[in-house]
Amino acid sequence: MNIEGYVKTNIADGIGTIEFFHPQSNSLPGHLLASLADSIAHAGENDEIKVIVLKSAGERAFCAGASFDELIAISNEDDGKSFFSGFANVINAARKCPKFIIGRVQGKAVGGGVGMASAVDYCFATKFAAVKLSELAIGIGPFVVGPAVERKLGTSGMSQLAIDATEWKSAEWARDRGLYSEVFDSAEALDVSVDRLARQLAKSNPEAMSELKKNFWSGTEHWDELLAERAAMSGRLVLSDFTRNAINAFKAKK
């Protein structure tokens, strides 16, 4: 399998399945983030696709968030903003996509992974899909994913994740606060429900679904500018000695 990871799209029966993979717990370096944002945008424009399923490969890790190797390599504010804009672009691509996106979260989600789970329109998960916003623990903060996470969890849920940055919250905790619609005991049961809803939506009125999605995302029209500002904020913080030391300490534990 490609050690650099991949993003691929499969189309069948009106369902566009976008799958991403990276050998380091599905963490996302810049080239995969760009490919993911492009794939979502292209799926939104493809008339063959009526509904989108977003998933990752593997079993117990949905997405480990940012690539630590790329984080530690950032040497100036422009590079920092560019890197964090990768997550912003994925969230905005999902937000602006005219088609419903179903999330399939089979395992743990960290940082940007929580942001992606928050940016889909309907999210299923397994009981293994615990969540954590670990950014503050390395001296940054979940600024880019914050608006998407807060939109789903509310300010209280978002602040709990952001402040207690070293502790996992269970999939049931996330379900009870609206991030996940349902939590299943196994990936097999998860896939049955993902497939059922995807097939149902593939037969629904595309225009009605598009208008409904616009209604759901009303009030987020300024997110292009907002998330760019948040990316710049994170790009500045990642250059601090605190963050560099914290990232190196995290890497040393692996």
Estimate what percentage of residues fall within beta strands: 15-25%
- Low-confidence runs (pLDDT<50, min 5 residues)? none
CATH H-level superfamily title = 2-enoyl-CoA Hydratase, Chain A, domain 1
CATH class: Alpha Beta
Helix content: 40-55%
CATH architecture: Alpha-Beta Complex
Per the CATH scheme, the topology name is 2-enoyl-CoA Hydratase, Chain A, domain 1
| Whole-number mean pLDDT | 95
Structural class given helices, strands, pairing?
A: alpha/beta
User: What is the domain total for the residues?
Assistant: 1
Overall shape: it is globular
β-strand number:
9
Rg over alpha carbons? 17 Å
Description:
The protein has 254 residues and is α/β, with parallel strands linked by helices. It starts with 5 loop residues before the first strand and ends with a helix. α3 (77-96) runs parallel beside α4, α3 (77-96) packs antiparallel against α9 (223-237) and α4 packs across α5 (146-163). It is globular, with a radius of gyration of 17 Å. The protein has ten helices and nine strands. It has a six-stranded mixed β-sheet, sandwiched between helices.
List the helices and strands and how they pair.
Layout: E1 6-12, E2 15-21, H1 30-45, E3 51-56, E4 61-63, H2 68-73, H3 77-96, E5 101-105, E6 108-110, H4 112-119, E7 122-126, E8 131-132, H5 146-163, H6 171-176, E9 182-184, H7 187-202, H8 206-216, H9 223-237, H10 241-253
Parallel strand pairs: 2-3, 3-5, 4-6, 5-7, 6-8, 7-9
Antiparallel strand pairs: 1-2
Helix pairs in contact: 1-3, 3-4, 3-9, 4-5
